[in-house]
């Protein structure tokens, strides 16, 4: 596959883009955006839509797995699109909901078996060489969500899926009254060694009294959303845990990514433990159903562009930015979900907000004529 792709690239573009990293070429080569979007539409047209029964009949079910209907809209039909594999170690299937466009792993992992994925060795993955990169990315993320994470004094923050506490460490340095939860017990132990004021807990938020009490000004979900098998339950809980004026900040792989359109099953967002893949088209449905008032997005151009360490010349950097913005196609999605109107007023002034509650529908107009029910 890769060599055929290389050959085609060479035929079309010569050697001009050879020094541009693969993850950026799709965004900067002229005409590529149009080609990839056409390729995506073609993929959707030629992939059959099956009933859940037809789909189940032909797909093996692993011991810790279950078949799902669309979590966001309830649609049972399945459009099989991808079969990501990890070097022979794992393999799963990704379908698209033909009604709302949601991409999800099906069969999915049964929630009660989720711990199996994180039981051992996961904390090693979260620290070590990975840690420095990760903390650098957190700094870029905090900057992108500015001013929400700038000053923490007197504000409560919950990092859901806090891993080894790398972000909590930054949050406590900025003065937040911070805590976190994670499924991996070794990660939580490491986090508590690292932290001075903030605390990490193992298990579910409702089992930890200081978290269950709620009143959070910020909840963060860094590379966690794609791992949640029951997002409706989790988001209902997040909404309840937020204080008035609170925001939920999300960083996840972007199902609108131009790289997904280009690489299909080999897309970097299809990692071993990812279960569901959101975009700005499907996330609002989840947020609306769980009581959030609005959502806004901060485009993601990739770490090297944002950190200023890219070697791309200015003209290509500009082209990359334009492609990301025009296609909503950065490889990561950064979203902020507002608990209520107060949160939108406080934090949403520079953003294009997608309002999720229609006031005229949620509050029926007073009927002054006395003819109600006739
Ligand atoms: Zn759906």
Keyword list:
374 residues; alpha/beta; 8-stranded mixed β-sheet; 38% helix; binds zinc ion
> What distance separates the N and C termini?
67 Å
Radius of gyration: 22 Å
User: Compounds present?
Assistant: zinc ion
Secondary structure class reads alpha/beta
Strand content: 15-25%
Q: Count the beta strands.
A: 14
Shape: globular
**Low-confidence segments, ≥5 residues, pLDDT <50?**
368-374
**Fraction of residues in helix:** 25-40%
Which sheet architecture does the biggest sheet show? 8 strands, mixed
Structure description:
This protein has 374 residues and is an alpha/beta fold. The chain is built from 17 helices and 14 strands. It has helices spanning 2-13, 22-28, 32-46, 52-58, 115-118, 122-126, 129-144, 166-173, 185-194, 209-212, 231-241, 258-263, 283-289, 303-307, 314-327, 341-347, 359-362, and strands at 65-66, 79-82, 94-96, 103-105, 108-109, 156-160, 177-182, 199-202, 216-222, 242-253, 276-277, 294-297, 332-338, 354-355. An eight-stranded mixed beta sheet has the order 8-7-6-9-10-13-12-14, with helices on both faces. A four-stranded antiparallel beta sheet has the order 2-3-4-11, with no helix packed on it. The longest helix has 16 residues, at 129-144. Mean pLDDT is 90; it is low at 368-374. Zinc ion is lined by residues 70, 72-73, 75, 97, 99-100, 102.
């Amino acid at each position: 596959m890769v060599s055929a792709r290389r050959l085609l690239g060479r035929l079309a573009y010569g050697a001009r883009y050879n020094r541009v990293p693969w993850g950026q070429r799709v965004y900067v080569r002229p005409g590529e955006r149009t080609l990839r979007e056409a390729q995506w539409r073609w993929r959707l047209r030629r992939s059959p839509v099956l009933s859940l029964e037809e789909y189940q009949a032909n797909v093996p079910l692993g011991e810790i797995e279950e078949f799902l209907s669309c979590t966001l809209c309830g649609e049972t039909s399945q459009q099989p699109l991808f079969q990501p594999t990890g070097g022979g170690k794992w393999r799963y299937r990704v379908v698209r909901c033909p009604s709302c466009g949601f991409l999800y792993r099906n069969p999915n992992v049964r929630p009660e078996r989720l711990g199996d994925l994180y039981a051992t060795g996961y904390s090693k993955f979260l620290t070590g060489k990975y840690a420095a990169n990760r903390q650098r990315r957190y700094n870029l993320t905090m900057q992108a969500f500015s001013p929400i994470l700038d000053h923490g004094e007197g504000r409560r923050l919950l990092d859901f899926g806090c891993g080894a506490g790398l972000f909590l460490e930054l949050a406590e340095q900025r003065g937040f009254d911070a805590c976190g939860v994670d499924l991996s017990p070794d990660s939580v132990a490491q986090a508590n060694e690292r932290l001075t004021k903030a605390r990490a807990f193992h298990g579910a938020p409702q089992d930890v009294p200081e978290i269950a009490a709620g009143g959070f000004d910020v909840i963060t979900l860094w590379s966690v959303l794609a791992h949640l098998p029951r997002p409706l339950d989790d988001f209902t809980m997040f909404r309840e845990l937020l204080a008035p004026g609170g925001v939920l900040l999300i960083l996840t792989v972007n199902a609108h990514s131009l790289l997904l359109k280009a690489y299909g099953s080999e897309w970097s967002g299809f990692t071993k433990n990812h279960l569901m893949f959101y975009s700005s088209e499907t996330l609002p449905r989840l947020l609306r159903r769980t009581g959030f008032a609005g959502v806004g997005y901060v485009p993601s151009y990739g770490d090297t562009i944002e950190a200023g360490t890219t070697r791309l010349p200015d003209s290509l950097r500009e082209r990359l930015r334009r492609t990301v913005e025009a296609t909503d196609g950065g490889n990561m999605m950064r979203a902020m979900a507002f608990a209520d109107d107060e949160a939108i007023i406080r934090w949403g002034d520079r953003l294009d907000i997608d309002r999720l509650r229609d006031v005229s529908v949620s509050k029926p107009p007073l009927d002054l004529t006395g003819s109600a029910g006739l």
